[in-house]
Amino acid sequence: xxEVVTGDAVVVEVRVAQMPSRALALIIDMAVQMTVLIAxxxxxxxxxxxxxxxxxxxxxIVLLVxxxxxxxxxxxTVSRGRxxxxxxxxxxxxxxxxxxxxxxxxxxxxxxxxxxxWMFSGAPALISSLxxxxxxxxxxxFAGTIVISExxxxxxxxxxMMPPPLAAWAATLELSQLPEEVATAARQYVSRWHDLSPxxxxxxxxxxxxxxxxxxxxxxxxxxxxxxYLSAVLAERRRRDQVRLAQRNGMAPPVQPGPFPQPGPxxxxxxxxxxxxxxxxxxxxxxxxPAQQYQPQAAQPYQPQAGQPYQPQPAQPYQPQAPSAxxxxxxxxxxxxxxx
Length: 340
Hints:
The chain has helices spanning 19-47, 53-78, 84-89, 103-119, 123-131, 138-143, 167-170, 180-191, 198-213, 226-248; strands at residues 2-5, 11-14, 91-95, 145-149. The protein is mainly alpha-helical.
């Protein structure tokens, strides 16, 4: 494994292609090139049998350059870093920052390959690959590229889990148009989410989420952070892949794990809650029960007793009370006498 630093300062682990696989891919490419050269040379001999010898030599040289140099340049540019041999062995040429190979880089590698493989029988490429830590040949050094393996065993140390609040929404997603390159970038971002600074988390997350949203529908619910959106998309994509694989093998679909086995953006199930700011302390829980609301009782109407007529009570005349004599102060316990 080798680490690649992208343009957004994100460290991504890639699997560098080994020497045997690169050599076998080169043999396949050279066999294809030799077959095309022999077939076209035989066709040209029949066509230019009655023509000028100088014209035949000029056309042969142009054809030789196109097959030897143009074949890897055209294939690697169109297929984003894969020739026929690399495609057969699961290899890909990428830039040093992990971005896809460009035409300029493919042209540098093609011209260097003419010298390395066809003029010196691959000796410069072998020596350079043994010296370089990433197995780079001269063409890779000049072009700023690296050959990686896409079929190697992947370490799934960080299992991306489905955020429970987004499970119902994720089940309705249309994921057939999502490219593998975009999904890989999203997976690497979510796996490295805790290692990034808050600013990089937001900026890179918004950029990758916008790329994913261009191929995925329907849109995410309002207020969902980027890492939650990407986690839901990737978890649903993995679940559907597992279901298809189980159906193809005649097995029961796998059961999704309930608890989260390791830390992640959603370490505990439940409704999503934004992380508290630094230094935040939760308030104390209330210690007294809430007061019960007063509900007045309805007044009972007067019902006279059976057989007893109603007799109103005579009003008593008002008699004012005479003022009472002041009481003498009494001492309270402790010797304190209240004032008069």
